[in-house]
Amino acid sequence: MSLPINNIKDLSFYETFIISQKTDGSESSDIEAETDIDNTNQIGSACLMIEELSDGNILIFSIQQMFVNGERTIYESLSVVTKDLKLVHEKRIERKCSDSEFMEKTIFIISTDNGLRLTKSITKDKDTECFSGDVEWKKSGDFLSAGARALMIRKLIIENFNKCIQAYTCDIDGDFALTQFWFHGNELKFMNDHALTVKRVDRIIIYEEKKIEKISSFFLLQSGQMLKQICESQNYFIHSNPLVDPFQAKYTKYLQKHWQDDVELMSMFLEYKAKRKEELKKKFESPQMKLVLNDYILSLIKCKPEGIMNFTAEFIRKLERNTNVNVQLQIFKTVERRTQQN
Hints:
Layout: E1 13-21, H1 31-35, E2 41-52, E3 58-68, E4 71-81, E5 87-97, E6 102-112, E7 115-124, E8 127-136, H2 146-158, E9 164-170, E10 176-191, E11 194-206, E12 212-221, E13 226-231, E14 236-239, H3 255-258, H4 263-284, H5 287-303, H6 308-321, H7 325-341
Antiparallel strand pairs: 1-2, 1-14, 2-3, 3-4, 4-5, 5-6, 6-7, 7-8, 9-10, 10-11, 11-12, 12-13, 13-14
């Protein structure tokens, strides 16, 4: 499977979703009935981000968190893939915790010359079991990571693809299975009193014992925006915010230019900025840092170097080489003595 991505700007975005319980008698293909505010029992939230990295690869990050019957469940995935959807590495975490129980599953997959290397672990309370081993990829097909799956679906929807794609996938337990993605034609649906042209994608898994199971269905706009994901074997579904007008919202954003428009991201940035400023203030006001700066200024006045940048770099390198226990102890003693004299 080769699906080269020529323009990542069309696929870069940051989206947030709501996770709700299914209602009795609801139809899988009925979008409006299950996303109407009055009929939605919210149990969690989710977000998905796709962005190009400086090395040309693509980062896909997703997280879901739900709270049902006193148990909190978190699914987290961080993937890096090439522009033709080949895996570089991927880490997935499933964490379940309640007042009386805790369990965490982790799986890490990297691409090697011989195929794939898979490492997984299971943690229950304080006990941890780790398993690792090489997976030689000899199956007659390609491997599609969880992150590449989200990227592939969005790309093919935008290109109006109406066929079937199949590849091998891996679940959180490290089990591989052949997966088919069926892209259907346009359907007319209604959401928030709007008529929408929607495309449906069905995900079907074919197990080695020839068992076939439909796992989930995705409903997306022609722009690639996901309106809804239905998990067939689970009592919940993921959908866009019912308050969002699908005709007004700008779903596709090039994050490097437009991330300031996201209120949540901007709030996180300002919080980090204030925290970092306070940390730097404490650091530079510490007696140790003042002593280092005094030594630097005295050395600068004494040597009067022509190249200030090279001199500063060499001063820092010497400082790093001399940073051992004895030097640190001597600095603290010097600072303590000067403090007492003052």
